[in-house]
Amino acid sequence: MITKTLVDHCLSTSYEHIPDEVKLHGKRSLLNWLGVAIGASQHPSIDMLLEVTKDLQTAEQVSVFGREEKVDLLMAALINGTSSHIFDYDDTHLDTIHHPSGPVAPVVLALGEHLGLSGEEILHAFILGCEAELRIANAVYPSHYQLGWHITSSTGVFGAAIAAGVLLKLDSEKLVWALGIAGTQSFGLREVFGTMTKPFHPGKAAQNGLLAALLAKKGFTSSEKILEAKRGFANVLAPEHDLEKVNVNWGEDWELLKNSFKPYACGIVLHPSIDACVYLHKRVSPDHLESIELKVNPYVLELTGKETPQTGLEGKFSVYFTAAIAFLDGNASEKQYTDEKVKDEKIIEIQKKIRIVVDESLKEDEVEVTALLKDGSNITHKVLHAKGSIDNPMQEEELLTKFSSLVEEHMGKSISDNMAHFLLNLEQYSNINELIVLNQQKKLISK
Amino acid sequence: MITKTLVDHCLSTSYEHIPDEVKLHGKRSLLNWLGVAIGASQHPSIDMLLEVTKDLQTAEQVSVFGREEKVDLLMAALINGTSSHIFDYDDTHLDTIHHPSGPVAPVVLALGEHLGLSGEEILHAFILGCEAELRIANAVYPSHYQLGWHITSSTGVFGAAIAAGVLLKLDSEKLVWALGIAGTQSFGLREVFGTMTKPFHPGKAAQNGLLAALLAKKGFTSSEKILEAKRGFANVLAPEHDLEKVNVNWGEDWELLKNSFKPYACGIVLHPSIDACVYLHKRVSPDHLESIELKVNPYVLELTGKETPQTGLEGKFSVYFTAAIAFLDGNASEKQYTDEKVKDEKIIEIQKKIRIVVDESLKEDEVEVTALLKDGSNITHKVLHAKGSIDNPMQEEELLTKFSSLVEEHMGKSISDNMAHFLLNLEQYSNINELIVLNQQKKLISK
């Protein structure tokens, strides 16, 4: 009854039932999501996806954020979801290394635009979708992730289906089927990390989940227990799991509150190392540096062990490159992860001075750094909670700065400010059309 | 190098390199595929998929077989692939319980129509796609299937990508990426068997594989070793595997030659039991029957153990119902699997007289039946090779009869005959347009 109970929980949780702090965190999550989606909207992989929609003569139904093109509902879910993960700069549920908005936000915005829904309806479905996928992620983490599944897409497809199903007003039977159709499409191998196919994952999860809900609405039948069945999601995709976590304390505990926002444009596992190297940046001149030793949680080398990245994208999977730019530039924003920088001799020279030591006693948001200087002295520093983690979160002002730094360059300051204002006051709008109109004004900017 | 070697094998195998018997079997596979696709083309689940394409205002690019509607390339792959698996009457590679045409045929026909390709080009890509997916299936069977994966979709997505990539003339680097994009989308849980979502699997695999090739053609990057990487397809989706099987004796052994065609409209595991009960049908009057005992391979109960199916579709997953209709009607065609028949008291009475005994010594195409009669006598019979198995294959004449029995009702005899003639002489046509024109004549029939 795990699947059915989850569905009944979602359908019995009205907008009014959701605590204000969850609504606020939902709006901030959407703000962060739209920022990273627009920030990456001119990336070559988005051009390629749009070229495919031209090949398919896709209908111009709804918006691609940051672009002038319109595409159909399913392609919008795919493209906007992909865009939001390109910079590896999106939100993270640290307990499961999950990026919850990626598969859900593009679905509620596409359906919202298509059906002319209100801000409240969108926020409601978004929160339920995120909550469902994160609880499923809790149930299968860590064995599922360790086996090799990209948990954002493999569980995100459920969140997308819940969000779409709520907006399409599916009844309990059909929403259960939607989860069945979604769950059998669960996918995403960590092997593709470091290529364009990683950001494709949340987009495709959004698309698969939306398709599931569209089909279920027509009466397309599926499993009634996709999560818990013998050959269902958990048993097949997670060597160890605890499905009790899916429904425990529903309505009291909110996983979405544990969603954090990244100050840096790479995987969250690198953030403590970046904090540590930014600390050194302020204290050590590159000319005086002999070497840097970083003691890290085991995931750092497992996920970002590339020693000689060849592209800016690969740089995000290299703790060596990342530590070097953080030390040299005092930052690790999208502007640091370029194809030029990974070939910059000055940076490569620093990379060679960085040594990584795995220390199983360190948590995922911790790191210990020791810089040895040429004069024989050394500086040590321990990061206890990386910036952006639950215990050291980004403040709203910092989120707004991040948003404008991503959006202004593509949309101009006025549109960027208005978009941020819209999302932070989302529930006050009776139709999300105002956001769409702002996106369309891009056309005026680019003239 | 497994993935790269497979791609290089495919790209270096010209049409001329393929033995004539493989080409013939390829054409027969396409004939069988089109028959089952058109046969199920009026099914409610196809109506539902087409309703979704209306919601999406999908472009009218290519044909849905057996229907008047046209949809875009990706939706055609999805819908035609789904249609072909609805009756559970499609082809089967018995070594892996794989239905190879399902994910591949809809891709080559959609691209063939869209690009105006020749019969030879289509047959070439179809054979390579089937060969690739079956070899991958060999490498992960049985652990992959036993874990709960529907091997037709989970490995079929590779076949679809290879076939599409060959037709789109991808070079080696891009075809490797296409496999990366396809492989990370591998999906399909056996939990949904018995619902509309099972036939959705080969269709979605076709769609995912085609999308992968379309994206790779634009330069969308992905893994270069999706099959063999630590967190790639085999390690994540198959507890045990032998990837040597992917490339062994390429060009000498042809897995497609082991593709068999079903005489009955249900899963292949039931076919020996049906043969056995058809044998009894000819010898025992229902009035004289006391009980039937079927000794079967373990997969029979695992896959088709439903004791009281409630719908015709569920009947296909019930060895009890299937044995009963085979005994009463002497057949197990699509006409036996109806919602009326599963509620027919006369059939249910026979169902109750059927006992299934699992015997691990029996192969998948074997069964031993014992009928006990009311007069105390009994009849026993052993099926050594079920009809449709490699050792007892359907002949071309039987395939043609199956095709016309599926197609005539929807297209009329003349179109049905012309379609069959076209497919059996596929390589002689410089453009597959003739098949498309035949399909469009459906419109005239339905007036």
UniProtKB/TrEMBL annotation, chains A, B:
It comes from the Bacteria. Residues 5-244 form the MmgE/PrpD N-terminal domain. Belongs to the PrpD family. Pfam families: MmgE_PrpD_C, MmgE_PrpD_N. This is MmgE/PrpD family protein. The lineage of its organism: Bacteria, Bacillati, Bacillota, Bacilli, Bacillales. InterPro entries: MmgE/PrpD_sf, MmgE/PrpD_sf_1, MmgE/PrpD_sf_2, MmgE_PrpD, MmgE_PrpD_C, MmgE_PrpD_N. Residues 264-417 form the MmgE/PrpD C-terminal domain.
